[in-house]
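Structural prep section.
Before we set up the soaks we want a predicted structure of the protein with guanosine-5'-triphosphate in place, mainly to decide which crystallisation condition to try first. Input record follows.
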Amino acid sequence: MKETTIAAIATPPGEGGIAVIRVSGPEAVLICDRVFKGKQRLSEAKTHTLSYGHITYDGKILDEVLAAVMRSPRSFTGEDVVEINCHGGSFVTRSVLSALLSSGAVMASPGEFTKRAFLNGKLDLSQAEAVIDLIQAESDAAVSLSVNQLKGKLSVPISELREKILNLAASLDVMADFPDEDVEETPDDSVKQTLSELIGALKTMKNQAEQGRLIRDGINTVIVGKPNVGKSSLLNALSGSDRALVTQQAGTTRDVIEERVRLGDVCLNLFDTAGIRSGAEQIEEMGIKKAKEYLEKADLVFFVVDSSRPFEPEDAEILALIQEKKTVLVLNKADLDKKVALPDLPEEMPQVVLSAKEKEGLDRLAQAVEDLFSLGAITQKQDAAVVNMRHKQAISEAETCLTNALNTLSTGMPLDLLSVDLRGALEALGTITGQTVSDEIVDEIFSRFCLGK
Ligand SMILES: Nc1nc2c(ncn2[C@@H]2O[C@H](COP(=O)(O)OP(=O)(O)OP(=O)(O)O)[C@@H](O)[C@H]2O)c(=O)[nH]1
Ligand SMILES: [Mg+2]
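Run finished without errors. Recording the C-alpha cells verbatim:
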C-alpha cells in the first residue's frame, strides 16, 4: 500500500510566538514545494537545513515562514519530513495547513507521526509511550523518568531478559530433541538458578514500576485523624488554598475533599476526610464510613494528631485502622504547647512535627514522603527503568510463567515441558517493546496521543 503524506499542526492550539506544522511521508517535500516560495525549492535544499520563504496559495501570500527539511531516514518518523515554522496566530496556522491539505497532504490522526516512527523502527513501543508520558508529565521527576524510557532505559533490559530466556529455551530444546546425543546436559540446578535470577530481575522491575506509577500519577494520600486535629487545615496549607472548610467545631468535614498538590518533587492526590469518632450523628457517620473506604485504597496515609492534647483512645483506634498502610504521623499544632505523649509506634513510621495553621514544617513532610517511598533514589538514578500499568502487567505475567517453570522443574517433570512456560514469558515481555503486541493494542496506545504528535 502506498503511504500517504500526513500533515498536522504540532504546536498547542491558540496564540503563540510561532507554530509548527509538520508534514511527513514520501511526498512531503513535493507537497510543500507546491505552496512554498523561496530563493530555492525545498526539493533542492540540503537535508537538515532551514529555508526562508513564503507560503502562497490561490495567488495570496499566507505567511512568512522557515521550513526545515529532514529527509528519510534521518527524521522523527523515518520518512521525509518538512516542518514549517509559521507565525503563531491560529487563523494563519490553519490556513497554511489547509493549503497543504489542498495540495495533496492528508490530515494526520492523533499519534500518527509517532506511530509511523514506531512502524519504521525509529522507536519501540515503550519509547513511543514515553513520548505520551513526556507530553503529560507534571513534575520534573516524571519528566526525567519519561526521558529515560525514551532513551531505551526500559527496552534494553527487557530485550536482555528476553535474550536470556531464549537461550534457556534453546538449550532445553536441544536436550529434548537429542536426548541421546552427546550434548552437554544442562543440569537441573543450573536451570533452576537461571530461572530464579530471571524472576528476581522481574521482581525488581515491578518495584520500580510501582515507584514510577507513584511519580507519574501522584501518590493517593488520605488524611485521617479524629475530629478537630487540623486535617482540613493541612489540606489547605499544602494546596495553598481555602479549599476545605476549617472551624473550631469538631465534625466540620463530612464529605471527602480531593486536591492535587505538589509536595517537594512529587505530586500527591490528597483526600481530606471526616474526623473519625464513635457516636457521631447520621451525616457525620456517613462521612466516617467514606473515610474508611478511602483509607483502603490509599498509597499513603497522613495520620494527624493534635500535639497540644493528650493521645486519646480515639487516636489509638485510628492507629489500629491504618496498621497495614504506609503512614506519616503528623503531629500538628506545633505552635501550641506540647501535651501529647505518644504510645509505642512502629519504628518505620516517620513523625513530622508541624503547624498547619502557621504553615510551618511542610518541607519536613515532603522529605518524609520522599524517604518513605525511596523516591529520591529513583528520581536521581539515571538508569531507572520505569514502567506503566501495561508494562507492569506484562512483567507480572512473565514472572508467573517463569515461576510455573520453576515449579514444574521442582516436581521433577521432564525439561521439555518448560518450553510452554518460557514461550509464555517471552510473549509477555515482547508486548512491552512491541515485538509480540497485537494491532489493537498498538492502535489503542497511539489513539491516546494528541493531534500533531
Ligand atoms: N494553633 C493551631 N490551630 C490549628 C492548627 N491546625 C488547625 N488548627 C485549628 O484547629 C481547628 C480545627 O481545624 P480543622 O482543620 O477544621 O480540623 P479537622 O481535623 O479538619 O476537623 P474535622 O473536619 O472536624 O474533623 C480550627 O480551629 C483550626 O484553626 C495549628 O497548626 N495550630
Ligand atoms: Mg475537616
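Observations: The longest strand covers residues 60-70.
Flagged for discussion at group meeting.
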